[in-house]
Amino acid sequence: MKHIRFSGHALDQMGDRGATRTEVQEAIRSGESLPAKKGRLAFRKNFPFNAAWKGKRYGTKQVMPIVVEEAGELVVVTVYVFYFGGSHEAQV
């Protein structure tokens, strides 16, 4: 597997949306791969969450990094996180 590099924007979004580097790397390595806009790749993986996020409780957190594939590395350009399966469903 290619080296994974995080853009500054992706790191900012991860912090704002509640994803960790480990989760993003795991989503890329073992999650579902799908095409994304502008020739990019999206990966998604569900993680057990069973905790509160922004005042609501959720059972599952889905992490979806968007990646540009370059010759020697995968560059994570942004990260989306979806929370669901609990008392409230939300996208952040």
Plain-language structure description:
Helix content is 22%, strand content 55%. With 92 residues, the chain is an alpha+beta fold. The chain has one domain. Strands 1, 2, 3, 4, 5 and 6 form a 6-stranded mixed sheet that branches. The mean pLDDT is 93.
Please tally the helical runs, counting DSSP H or I stretches of 4 or more residues.
2
Number of spatially distinct domains: 1
Topology pattern, helix = H, strand = E:
EHHEEEEE
| Percent helix | 10-25%
Q: How large is the radius of gyration?
A: 13 Å
Strand content: over 45%
Total count of strands = 6
Q: Termini, distance in Å?
A: 29 Å
SSE diagram, text form:
Elements: E1 3-6, H1 8-17, H2 21-30, E2 32-35, E3 41-53, E4 56-69, E5 73-86, E6 90-91
Parallel strand pairs: 1-5
Antiparallel strand pairs: 2-3, 3-4, 4-5, 5-6
In short:
With 92 residues, the protein is α+β, with helices and mostly antiparallel strands. Helices cover 22% and strands 55% of the residues.
